[in-house]
Every structure is written in structure tokens, then in C-alpha cells.
Amino acid sequence: MTYLAFLRENARWLFACYLMTVFSGFGQTFFIALSTGDLQAEFGLSHGDLGGLYMLATLGSALTLPVIGRTLDHYPVRWIAATVVVGLAFFCFVMANVSAVWMIAFAYYGLRLCGQGMMGHTSLTAAGRWFTAQRGRAVSISILGFPTAEALFPITFVALSAVVGWRGAWTFGAVVLVLVTLPLLLVLLSRDRVPSASEAKAAKVTGRQWTLWDAACDWRFWLVSCGVNAPAFIGTSIFFHQVYLVELRGWSLELFAGAFFLMAAGVVCATLVIGPLIDRFSARQLLPFTLVPLMFACFLLANTHAQIVVFAFMALVGISNGFNGTLVGALWPEVYGTQHMGAIRSVAFAIMVFASAAGPGLVGWLIDIGVSLDLQVNVMGIYCLVFCALLTISARAYRSSEQSAG
């Protein structure tokens, strides 16, 4: 089946998955951070105070996600998606009306859980379950929602804030979710998609359907999770401390912010390329290469201080995010089956959320005690290099177990 034919035949489901990743943007750091200055000014909070609230709320969402995420194994995607959208709209409204510090923490928790957590989790779980032989392409299309949100949400929020204030912008987000996103998803998901027998046969997936307990007892699951979540830890850490980075380098913040379009372009290009490659070679075979772009990005940023490095770094991070996000979305159902994918992926997502929460705090603490940022970023690059080897071992172990089962 050609790419265009695939898009045409599955447009409703692919667009639904894409929409969910787009609107996960309301719970992503790049969007929530736009209100940081206003919250600090109104409530007299320091950077550390607000950062601590954000970290605790994100960790709380990571602990909750495995419990809520497994509902996808028991209820239709349509109703889970609808519930999450309503929940996300509610927490957008809470953010628009915060009047106490505890409400900020509550809003952060809900935005991270419903936005970063469940919206992306529902989208990628559905794509992995609905599509087998074309899973790589389906996941790659779903992933495109993330760079779309990165490109559109911040500028829209800034423009709205100038007219109706930051609280009004959050209220507008809640209204859009309820009046636009929710009806669209209900219509698009009114029919569920079931892979045909020929698709299942072509996908070459083993017959075993792993439970969450089986996966949790598999050493490969934890080793791979430590590798594929490196982008969440490294990317969030560097972007959270971008002001310190540009001051350290003598760059301008405008230069750094202006290079974000290259990251979005890198995500799109890598996503569209890696999807068909996964369908051809399998996610297992491509697993050892997922951290290579990020490894080069870290070494480049740590050891070259010229301004042009900003653009190369952003492009490599984008390629890494597109490669890694698409590959992980296809890997878990490929190696563990789809029957219990909601529970398994919810744990994998929770690990990712935990990594994104822990990174900025750890890096900031190391900076405070005098550990140079260059040294830290070099260590991040070495971590990626080591895990390239460890992911190769994991990939071979997955292939060996598949051959034994066959």
C-alpha cells in the first residue's frame, strides 16, 4: 500500500491520533512555562518556589499515570479520549482562575497528567493497537502533533495574552478543547479500527501478549526505558536552563529561541523518514541508533561555543526527538503485543514523565554546587554513547526471543 493510499483509507483514525498529540501541548513544559512570569509576579514566588511546585506536580502525575493509563485496555478509545479532553479543559480553566499557591500546584498536576501524560499516551497506544503492518507510519503521523503544538501554541498564547491577558488565554484554551476538540474526536472515533487478518500476518508480531507484570519482570523493558527516555531528561534539562546556557556562552536569548523552528523541522523530517523504515526493518532493528543524533548534539554543545552551534544543536535534537518518539511508539506493541498495551505503555510514559521532571532539578542542583554545565552535557553525551551499545544488546535479545518463539 502506498503512503497516500494509507492516508486516504485511514484518515479519520490518523487525524484523531494527530489531534490528541497536538492538544497535549496544553500540558507540555514549553506552553505552561509561558505563564511563569505572571504567576511569580502575582503570588510573590521565586524561580525555586515555582520550579519546586512544577517538579512535585509532574512527579505526582508520573505516579498517577500507570493507574489511569491502563483504562485503555478496558474501555473504548473514544470514551477515554473524550474524558481526557474534558479533564484537560477543566485544568486549563483552573489555571485561568488560580487564586492560591495550592491551586497552581493542582493545575500543574492536572495539566501534566491529562496533557503531557494521557493525551499522548492515548494517541500512541491507539495508533500502536489499530495498525500492525503500517504501525511505523501511523505512529509517525501521530507524532507530528507535537511539533505542530510547539510551532503554534506559544505564539498564539502570546498574542491572546496581549489582548485578553494570560488568564483569558487559558480560558480560551479550555473553550477550544470543549467546543472544538471534543466534538471532532467524538465524530472521528465513532468507529473503531480493527487490524485485518492480512495486516496482522504481515506485521510479523509474535503471538504472545505480555501482561504488565510480564513486562515489568523483563530486564529488557527497564534497560530500554533507561535508554529511550534519555531525550526527555536531556532535552528538558537543557531547555529549562536555557537562560543560564546563553548567559554562559555570551549568546542572545533571541538567537536560541529563534532556532526552535529547526528543532520542529528536524522532528517532522525524522518522523516522516523513520516511520516507513520501521515498517520495513522493524523497531527492534533500529533501536540501537535512536540515541546517535542526541549524542552528537550533546558533544557539539559542550565542546563548541560558536553561535552557529545553536542551529546544529537544535536540528540534531529535533531529529533525535522525531526518531525516538516514533520508534518508541512502535516498539512496545511490537515486542509486547497489544492486548495489555495500555497498562504497559502507561508505565513507560510514567518513566518518561519522571525523567522530564527529575532532569531540570538535578542539573540545577549540580550547577549550584559548582559542576560546570559543559561537563554535565559531556556526561549526557557519554550516557547516550553507552546506551547505544546497551540498546544493541537489547535489540539482539528481542530478536533472539522472537526466533525462539517462532
Tell me what the structure shows.
- There is one protein chain.
- By secondary structure, the protein is mostly helical.
- The protein has 21 helices and no strands.
- It folds into two domains: 6-203, MFS general substrate transporter like domains (Growth Hormone, Chain: A), CATH 1.20.1250; 205-406, Growth Hormone, Chain: A.
- 82% of the residues lie in helices and 0% in strands.
- The radius of gyration is 20 Å and the shape is globular.
Chart the SSEs and their pairings.
Layout: H1 3-9, H2 11-23, H3 29-32, H4 36-43, H5 47-69, H6 77-96, H7 101-130, H8 135-143, H9 145-188, H10 197-203, H11 212-216, H12 219-228, H13 230-240, H14 242-249, H15 253-258, H16 260-281, H17 283-286, H18 292-303, H19 309-336, H20 341-368, H21 373-405
Helix pairs in contact: 2-7, 2-8, 2-9, 5-7, 5-20, 6-7, 6-9, 7-8, 7-19, 7-20, 8-16, 8-19, 9-16, 12-21, 13-20, 16-19, 18-19, 18-21
Describe the structure concisely.
Helix content is 82%, strand content 0%. It has 21 helices and no strands.
N- to C-terminal distance: 26 Å
Return the CATH topology of the largest domain: Growth Hormone, Chain: A
Query: How many distinct helices?
Result: 21
The coarse silhouette is globular
CATH class of the largest domain: Mainly Alpha
* Secondary structure: helix percent: over 70%
Radius of gyration: 20 Å
Residue stretches low in confidence (pLDDT < 50, at least 5 long) are none
What structural category do the secondary elements indicate?
mainly alpha
